[in-house]
Design brief:
Blueprint (H helix, E strand, L loop, with lengths): L2 E5 L8 E4 L11 E6 L2 E11 L14 E3 L7 H14 L3 H8 L15 E6 L1 H4 L11 H11 L5 E2 H5 L5 H10 L3 E6 L18 H12 L5 E7 L5 H14 L3 E5 L7 H10 L5 E4 L5 H12 L5 E4 L11 E7 L16 H12 L2 E6 L4 H6 L6 E5 L9 E6 L11 H12 L3 E5 L8 E4 L16 E3 L4 E3 L6 E3 L12 E4 L3 H11 L5 E4 L9 H10 L5 E4 L12 E6 L13 H13 L10 E6 L5 H7 L3 H15 L6 E9 L2 H16 L6 E2 L3 E8 L2 E10 L2 H16 L7 E6 L5
Parallel strand pairs: 9-14, 9-15, 10-12, 10-13, 11-12, 13-14, 16-26, 17-24, 17-25, 23-24, 25-26
Antiparallel strand pairs: 1-2, 1-4, 3-4, 3-5, 6-7, 6-8, 18-22, 19-20, 20-21, 27-30, 27-31, 28-30, 29-30
Helix pairs in contact: 1-2, 1-11, 7-8
Bound molecules: zinc ion (2 copies).
């Protein structure tokens, strides 16, 4: 072989040919250092070839094939090719984005040794209980090492508590412990596990039916109401796979919001290497973890959407927790859905994939009613009943900072009982609008079609879309009126009102602003756990996967705004979001209550919610979708365009539509329209929807259409294609 075809991080739909005399078949999937233009860059070898279409005089040579880490395996390479084809995104960008950042850099790697720690003779003689009281970390390490004569992997120790690294260092210096460097892989033994709680009959049945089919590709929707113990099902399945020496890929929407899951996994599988893969890690950590997954050492890979591309030689199962969550879809660049890619990956690897949710996406719910996907259902809460959900009609009522009398009375009673309450409002800041009553001026963002949100604690106006901020004006910039009024409510305003109304209550606000500081969220969680809070005020952040056992009252305000959105998925999302929030109430032995303030208590969405009737709600929505030919009954793609002027973007899309009409077979092209938010960060945005009842017809059309569009570029327009768009 004398040529290689290399994927490069450039927005071109092609591979690049290079001469490589020393390339062997084992080099496919490896990185290569190559000259590109006047630069030297890293690419990934996708193919070997005997010939090239380029004139030989123009072919340049690979500088070096990087054989420091194993190549990307064939199944990952084919997954990346699939991604590139399906989302019509340049292969080079897809491949390079799937590598940890460190592997995209030119300089050589110094691979970290995998270290284990064990007690020395001296360390064995030390009684952890005899250490001074404040030496909690050291005590923890000693305790852990005492039960594992072979020593414990550094990675596992680091998961025990914060501050492990300095403690390991000082304990080594004192000669209590020693590091053992070993080749990866040699440490695998049948992992121990700490048994969990006894499963309910319903849980056991779900586990048994999935286990029976665990040797082949089969998607499972695990549809369990909030608090029904889906996690225990994952753990039971993971245990049986680990016992068979398989790896598990567990995808979650946002890892920082679910530290409880990671802690639980580490506690339950103490001898298994668990690695996390998400964007919050340092470059180095991410590389280490990725390599531990790739060489098969990590038994459990817990990650966010990007982890779906991790090489896993012993993959036995993929679990996608909260599969309905929009975070699984990347909203820029390669706009892929990690959940959908997980299905493709499971299929090529012939392993089951479990999609868990209390409020499944309609796509998956519909799929699970066909014969290509199974469903396991959990209808009962473990040791608890579902909360009572009640609508509070607010039309005509005078609200106090958005709060009704009914809501305030319920809060008052709950605080009196010393139980925890949560007021949920999905908007941070003080008020969404700053308004001049004299001339009707409102503060809006210069760069977006959006109002500036009033943030009172640092007296600024902020755009939540582009990040623009400015000081609050002393008077109306249009008419000079000094009496500007905040309209509507955000978390800060509700917090302020509650502090005034309940002066003795301990109130804690949890949103993206209050948790920005490192560790702030951890400290807040400790406060809640220690019962140092009476009323929580929070956004959607609070609804994801947190258990607050003493939470008995949830009040929801300002939910109506998404009832009549122009995005056809808005009501599905609202129902899911409210179910998740309601699900926080009454989880242990205390009954829970949920109050939803609304002007439309008779709306079918709220009615279904009060009856805990996901099924009925989903069936109604599915009927509507079928009539309107929307997903899951049709497939969509969105051509998005942005330009300094809206007319430019619309004209580009109009030309694109004209060029597409002759190609469109069983495909409908709609008229170009401005985006729901037409201006963002100074750019005008428009979009063109393409729809088809046939996924393959849509794919054939898109491939042909893109080829034409790329030959008719307009320098003023930035455009991109979004296949299976989530946000319209
Ligand atoms: Zn004014
Ligand atoms: Zn803005």
């Amino acid at each position: 072989m004398s040529f290689v075809r290399v994927a490069l991080d450039v927005p071109l739909r092609t591979l690049f040919d290079y001469r490589a005399a020393d390339a062997v078949s084992d080099d496919v999937g490896r990185r290569a250092l190559i000259p590109f233009g006047r630069k030297i860059v890293v690419g990934v070898i996708m193919e070997l070839a005997n010939t090239t279409d380029l004139p030989l005089t123009r072919i340049r040579s690979v500088l070096r094939i990087m054989r420091d880490v194993p190549p990307l395996p064939a199944d990952v390479l084919s997954l990346l090719r699939f991604c590139s084809d399906y989302y019509h995104h340049p292969l080079g960008e897809v491949v390079m984005a799937a590598l940890p950042t460190r592997l995209r850099r030119r300089h050589a790697l110094k691979l970290p040794a995998v270290r284990r720690y064990r007690l020395t003779e001296h360390g064995l003689g030390i009684d952890p209980m005899a250490l001074p009281g404040r030496a909690t970390v050291q005590r923890e390490i000693l305790g852990r090492l005492r039960v594992s004569a072979l020593g414990v992997d550094e990675q596992i120790l680091r998961g025990l508590a914060p501050g492990i690294a300095p403690a390991l260092k000082s304990m080594s210096a004192m000669g209590w412990i020693e590091a053992v460097v070993e080749a990866p892989d040699s440490s695998r033994a049948i992992p121990g596990l700490i048994p969990g709680p006894v499963l309910s009959a319903e849980q056991q049945q779900a586990v048994d039916s999935i286990r029976r089919e665990s040797d082949r590709y089969l998607p499972w929707l695990l549809h369990g109401i909030t608090g029904s113990g889906k996690t225990e099902i994952y753990l039971a399945l993971i245990a049986s796979l680990l016992a068979r020496d398989r790896q598990i890929l567990l995808l979650v929407p946002e890892i920082n919001l679910t530290p409880q899951l990671e802690a639980l996994l580490r506690a339950r599988f103490p001898d298994t290497r668990l690695v996390a893969l998400h964007s919050g890690l340092s470059e180095r950590e991410r590389l280490n973890n990725w390599l531990l997954a790739q060489n098969g050492t990590a038994g459990i890979v817990l990650g966010t959407r990007l982890a779906v591309f991790t090489p896993l030689p012993r993959l036995g199962m993929i679990i996608v927790d909260e599969e309905h969550d929009a975070s699984f879809k990347q909203m820029e660049g390669l706009r892929y859905s990690a959940r959908d890619i997980a299905l493709v990956r499971a299929k090529t690897r012939k392993v089951p994939v479990i999609l868990g949710s209390a409020t499944p996406s309609l796509e998956i719910y519909h799929l699970a009613h066909g014969d290509r996907c199974r469903m396991a259902t959990l209808t009962q809460r473990v040791n608890a009943v579902l909360p009572a959900i009640v609508c509070v009609a607010t039309r005509g009522e005078k609200l106090i900072d958005g709060l009704s009398q009914t809501m305030l009375k319920a809060l008052h009673e709950n605080v009196g009982r010393k139980e925890l309450s949560l007021v949920f409002i999905n908007r941070r800041g003080y008020a969404p609008v700053l308004y001049c009553a004299a001339c009707a001026w409102t503060a809006s963002c210069q760069r977006c079609t959006a109002k500036l949100v009033l943030h009172l604690n640092d007296t600024r106006l902020r755009c939540h879309h582009c990040g623009f901020q400015e000081k609050i004006p002393a008077a109306c910039p249009r008419c000079g009126n000094a009496d500007l009024a905040p309209l509507g409510q955000g978390t800060q305003r509700v917090e302020t009102a509650l502090t005034r109304i309940f002066p003795d209550a301990r109130i804690l606000r949890i949103d993206r602003d209050s948790t920005r500081r490192k560790n702030a969220w951890n400290q807040m969680r400790d406060r809640i756990r220690d019962r140092d809070v009476d009323i929580l005020v929070g956004t959607q952040m609070l609804s994801k996967g947190h258990d607050f056992p003493q939470l008995t009252l949830v009040g929801v305000i300002n939910a109506d705004s998404s009832l009549y959105s122009s995005d056809f998925r808005a009501s599905e999302r609202l129902f899911g979001g409210l179910t998740q929030v309601a699900g926080r109430a009454g989880r242990a032995d205390l009954a829970g209550k949920v109050l939803i303030q609304t002007e439309f208590p008779a709306h079918p969405l709220y009615q279904s919610l009060c009856r805990h009737d996901y099924r009925g709600f989903a069936q109604t929505l599915l009927k509507e979708r079928e009539q309107a030919a929307l997903p899951p009954f049709a497939y969509l793609a969105l051509l998005r365009a942005e330009a300094p002027k809206l007319e430019t973007a619309l004209a580009f899309l109009k030309r694109a539509a004209d060029r597409g009409h002759s190609l469109a077979k069983h495909v409908t092209l709609y008229d170009p329209v401005p985006a729901i938010m037409p201006r963002l960060a100074g750019q005008e945005r428009a979009q063109l929807m393409v729809q088809s009842r046939s996924r393959s017809a849509l794919q054939v059309f898109l491939a042909a259409w893109l080829g034409i569009l790329e030959n008719h570029a307009d320098r003023r327009v930035r455009w991109s294609l979004d296949v299976d768009p989530l946000d319209l």
